[in-house]
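Preliminary data (for renewal application), zinc ion complex.
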Amino acid sequence: MMNVSSQVIFTKNIAIDLEQYLRQWLDNKQYKNIFVLVDENTRKHCYPILDKIFSQSQVIEIPSGELNKNIHTCGQIWGQLTDFKADRNSLLINLGGGVIGDMGGFCAATYKRGIDFIQIPTTLLAQVDASIGGKLGVDFQGFKNQIGVFQYPKYVFLDIGFLQTLPQRQLISGFAEILKHCLIADLKKWKEISRKSIAQQDWADLVVHSVGIKSEIVAQDPKETGLRKILNFGHTLGHALETYLLEIPERQVLHGEAIAFGMIVESFISFQKNLISKTELSEITAVIQHFFGKIDISKTEFEKIIELAHQDKKNTSQQIRLVLLESIGKASYDHSVSPETLQQSLEYYANSYDFEK
Ligand SMILES: NC(=O)c1ccc[n+]([C@@H]2O[C@H](COP(=O)([O-])OP(=O)(O)OC[C@H]3O[C@@H](n4cnc5c(N)ncnc54)[C@H](O)[C@@H]3O)[C@@H](O)[C@H]2O)c1
Ligand SMILES: [Zn+2]
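Predicted structure:
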């Protein structure tokens, strides 16, 4: 049965809450087999929190990282499901960050034409973004999320307890998507979180807040024919930089770090098009650089980044279509942009003052 939305469960004690669900499913014979997908980090840090209740489950472990989010790893997952004789009444539990969620969800949605899956996101980025909205998939031939489907998990369990073992850099990366949600939809929250340090942020509150904003937007436009595009604010230029730096191992950036860059650049374009004021642009730049610092990009690299932005699969017929801010807290989509403005926006970023982290 195709799920058209998920039940999102906020919990302060996932072990207790999930056990109740699992017992019910097993008692009802709803699922014959339960599989848990992990990577080496979530096996070490997250699985032990749940191992007692997973005593009747099979664990599938794959290597961590975006570089493994590909069809080859899907082959390993489908292979193990097949070896374990998983039938259509199986459940796959994806315990990990966005890589595990996107890829595990994709494997579940396609294995035997689809088995149920649930998401237990363990990174901030996956909790506030990747686990919500039904987009699943893997990277292919250098393009992010090139192969995938829309399908919703049965449940998403959100417990910020998992964030305790998350490296600080990963935490801040996830924070970029929270800033994005505020910039496109909530001025008041933007002001509130801008004033606090990372250590002072109230993650429980922010996860609920981001999930609320994203769910509301997705509900209005599940397949991204219009409004949902605003969730891509910062992502056209951000993805371009992320893709460009993929090939330079010593300069690799995390997704959120690239999106932080993209949000400054796309805010500049919003300013250039008279949508936001100079004051708003300066505020956005200062806040983002305060949390993320600045990525060194030289003028000679602009052309390549712009070229990659043109290849973004969200563009139609080679024209870049951007999400821009109308003000802090309001976004609109499908703006075209001239090559000159793109060039100027990268210059703005490169010349902007590097605020101390
Ligand atoms: N489907 C969507 O709508 C959507 C939205 C945004 C991002 N994404 C995808 O999400 C992915 C990025 O997700 P991510 O940032 O979570 O990356 P990730 O899954 O690679 O996790 C980051 C790192 O943290 C480790 N980790 C995870 N949880 C941990 C924990 N609790 N303690 C210690 N270490 C832990 C992982 O093993 C990994 O090394 C990208 O592939 C991106 O395309 C998808
Ligand atoms: Zn993102």
